[in-house]
Amino acid sequence: MPYHNPNSRSRRNVLRIVGVLVVLAVIAGVANFLHATTSEAAGNVKPQIETMQGIRQTAQDSITFAQGLDDPDRFAAHIETVQQCMDDYDRLADAKQIKYLLSDNLQERIIGLLYRNQQRTIIDSMRVAAHNLDGQTKELLSAVDAAMADDFSQHAAQWLLQVDDPTQANELIDRYGKQRAYASMREMLADLRSLHKLRSDVKQQVSTAVSNLHNAEAAAAAIAVPERNGDLDPAGWYTLATNVASTMGVQIEQTMEFNCGGQSGENPSGFVAAYYCQMPDRSQRNVVHMLTTHPDWTQTARSPWLVDMVKHELSHRSIMISCGTTQPTIAADRTEAVTNSYSVLFFGADRDRITNQQQGVAEYAMDASSDQLATAIHDGNCG
């Protein structure tokens, strides 16, 4: 009878199980190796690609910012160049070899191992494309910066005089007065966005100041002014003139000497009885001066002509707030005539009284043209 070993079948089963476990261990080892290898490859590249993607996002945001400015057409060439560089970068970043490398799917990353050399080449090309894109983004933002700086240099001094509260205008002036340097285009874009927001806020404040001005003008014009000299005593006329001025947020200062803009002592042409100074530091923005040494002061102080004179000077101020200067381009060489018309049309000054008091002084003489120009200024057209 042949010998039968009852342990042989069990032994074979054990060997089979061990074999299976060995195979599984090898597979697991290979899988772990592939996972580690692909993860390491992606981990080495991801920070670089994230940096390049940041450059790409800044370029896109810079285009959007430039296109949202007042005159985007002036940046059209720069925008087109940045867009071309961005397209060049995108074509490389969208390559299947790069997608395999960065995929969350292990199987796709394993496939990506077959393209290692191509991946290196593409990534090198991506670095070059990102560098070019960053350079062209700098060109675009530098053009935007120059345009904003040019607008600032042309208008900042005017805005400072026009706004009711100069806080933000002074902040804008202070920021442009400092040397600005940037560590990256993202930092430059953030600063330009902030400057643009501040500039927009200041311009809105100018619009608000003009709107408030017109409301105050209407209130000042509504104050009744007696027609005859004897209707009020000198104190009454001065109080009335002061009330008109205070409605505009302006105070009247009496002075014995002409002093405006560095000119002092001399009364220009001996004609000036009142004056308004446009000073760059706003120190005289809300002040009207009455020259009490004028030969006709005693008579003026006892008449409604005092109120008309104050309204004329207030009109200089209104024109300055509307246009940023008391001598807007649209008025040309007719500043005083236009100012007279403004006082009549918007402050209710007496046209006939002004004409009689200023007979023979051509530069102050009103006509239909000066009225039209004054209306245009009030409507926001400064030339």
Considering the chains and any ligands shown, give keywords for the structure.
383 residues; mainly alpha; 2 domains; three-stranded mixed β-sheet; two-stranded antiparallel sheet; rod-shaped; TAT_signal; Tat pathway signal sequence domain protein
Can you describe what's shown?
This protein has helices spanning 7-67, 76-93, 96-102, 106-112, 116-162, 167-176, 185-221, 234-247, 297-300, 305-323, 335-347, 351-357, 368-378, and strands at 251-255, 259-260, 263-264, 274-275, 287-291. A hairpin with a 2-residue loop joins strand 2 (259-260) and strand 3 (263-264). The protein has a 3-stranded mixed β-sheet, covered by helices on one side. A two-stranded antiparallel ribbon has the order 2-3. It has 2 domains: 7-153, no CATH class; 223-378, no CATH class. Helix 1 crosses helix 7, helix 3 crosses helix 4 and helix 7 (185-221) packs antiparallel against helix 8 (234-247). The protein is mainly α and 383 residues long. It is built from 13 helices and 5 strands.
What number of structural domains do the residues give?
A: 2
Helix coverage percent: 55-70%
Continuous helix count: 13
Are there runs of 5+ residues with pLDDT below 50, and where? Answer: 21-42
Task: Name the helix and strand elements from N-terminus to C-terminus, one letter apiece.
Answer: HHHHHHHHEEEEEHHHHH
Largest sheet entry? 3 strands, mixed
Provide the structure class: mainly alpha
Our Rg estimate from Cα atoms comes to: 39 Å
* Rounded mean pLDDT score: 86
Give the percentage of residues in beta strands: under 5%
In whole angstroms, the N-to-C terminal distance is 127 Å
Question: How would you sum up the global shape?
Answer: rod-shaped
Organism: Bifidobacterium adolescentis L2-32
Protein name: Tat pathway signal sequence domain protein
InterPro entries: TAT_signal (IPR006311)
